[in-house]
Amino acid sequence: MLLEKVVPETKKNSKLKGGIAIALGAALLAGGGGTLAYWSTNQTLQGTSINTGDLNLELGAATWTLTHGTNSPVTVGAANINDLEIVPGDKLELVQMLDVTLKGDNLKADLTIDTSGVTDAANVTIAASLAGGAATQELSPADSGDSIAATVTVVFADTTGGQIDVNEAINLNAIDFTLTQKPL
C-alpha cells in the first residue's frame, strides 16, 4: 500500500515539474533571455583623418635706436640695452619683429601690443604700434610665416627739469605682444 501511494505522487510531481519547465522556458524566450538574435553588421571608416591647425607668435629680430633731440639715431645693441640711461630729450625706439604662424580653415586672429603693465616715470611716455600705426592688426592664414614689425617708443620729455625722474627704473619686460583667435 505504501508503494501504491508513492507512484501516483511521482506522476503528479513529474507533470508539475514538466509544466513548470515549459512555463519557465516560455518566460525566458518572451523576456529576451533566450538565444533570439537579430542581424547586424558594421563598417569602420577607412583612410579619413583631419588635422588641427596652429596659432603661434615668436619674437624675431629686434633693433633698438636712441635719438637725442635733433641728433641722428644711434643703434643700441640688445646686449647693452639694460645698461642704457636715458635723459630728458631722449627717444628710445624698439622695432621688434613678430613671427606669426596661422594655420586653419576659418582662422582669423588679432595681433596686439599691451604696454599697460609698464610702470614709467612721470615724464616718460611709452607708445606702441604695429605696421601702419594701428594698435591691432587682423591676421589670417595668408599671413602665416610673415614677420610683422611692432614699434615701441619711449620718450623722456625734454621739458623735465630739476631732479625730476632721476634714477627711475622703467621695466620694458611688461610689454606683451599677443596673438588671439577671433570668433567667427
TrEMBL record:
Keyword annotations of the record: Membrane, Transmembrane, Transmembrane helix
Which InterPro entries would you find in this protein's record? Answer: Alt_signal_exp_actinobact, Signal_pept_SipW-depend-type
Residue ranges crossing the lipid bilayer per the database entry: 20-39
Q: Which domain of life is it from?
A: Bacteria
Quote the NCBIfam families the UniProt record gives: cognate_SipW, exp_by_SipW_III
Query: Under what name is this protein listed?
Result: Alternate-type signal peptide domain-containing protein
What organism is listed for this UniProt entry? Jonesiaceae bacterium BS-20
Q: What is the lineage of its organism?
A: Bacteria, Bacillati, Actinomycetota, Actinomycetes, Micrococcales
